[in-house]
Amino acid sequence: MASVRCVGGIIHDAAGRLLVIQRGHDPGRGRWSLPGGRVEPDETDAQAVVREMREETGLDVRPGPLAGMVVRGRYEIYDYVCEVRGGRLRAGDDAADARWVDAAAFGTLELTDGLAATLRGWDRLPRC
């Protein structure tokens, strides 16, 4: 089975909180993760990040450097550090909820498999 290229966005607010979404569909329905999704044909990673962030969170972002890549089943997920340029946070599209979380709140969430360890390895956990 062919792999599926996906992207995700990593955003911290000025207070150091991390943006997470609650997945509205499988895989991982009900669990918390980074916003993101599949890269469409003829779409660059940067274009996919901008589109997915707008669809899932209502935020307009500028993708920055690649934080890292993980493989989850057939999904190759490339996560980019992003900067918010506008919009208003709201859950949309495949997200059941979207919120900024500090370290204490992050520790209470039911996360997608491997998310906390991956973000820890990339030094991208909530900073407050």
UniProtKB/TrEMBL annotation:
<dbReference type="InterPro" id="IPR015797">
    <property type="entry name" value="NUDIX_hydrolase-like_dom_sf"/>
</dbReference>
<dbReference type="Pfam" id="PF00293">
    <property type="entry name" value="NUDIX"/>
</dbReference>
<dbReference type="InterPro" id="IPR000086">
    <property type="entry name" value="NUDIX_hydrolase_dom"/>
</dbReference>
<keyword id="KW-0378">Hydrolase</keyword>
<dbReference type="InterPro" id="IPR020476">
    <property type="entry name" value="Nudix_hydrolase"/>
</dbReference>
<feature type="domain" description="Nudix hydrolase">
    <location>
        <begin position="2"/>
        <end position="125"/>
    </location>
</feature>
<dbReference type="GO" id="GO:0016787">
    <property type="term" value="F:hydrolase activity"/>
</dbReference>
<dbReference type="InterPro" id="IPR020084">
    <property type="entry name" value="NUDIX_hydrolase_CS"/>
</dbReference>
<comment type="similarity">
    <text>Belongs to the Nudix hydrolase family.</text>
</comment>
<protein>
    <submittedName>
        <fullName>NUDIX domain-containing protein</fullName>
    </submittedName>
</protein>
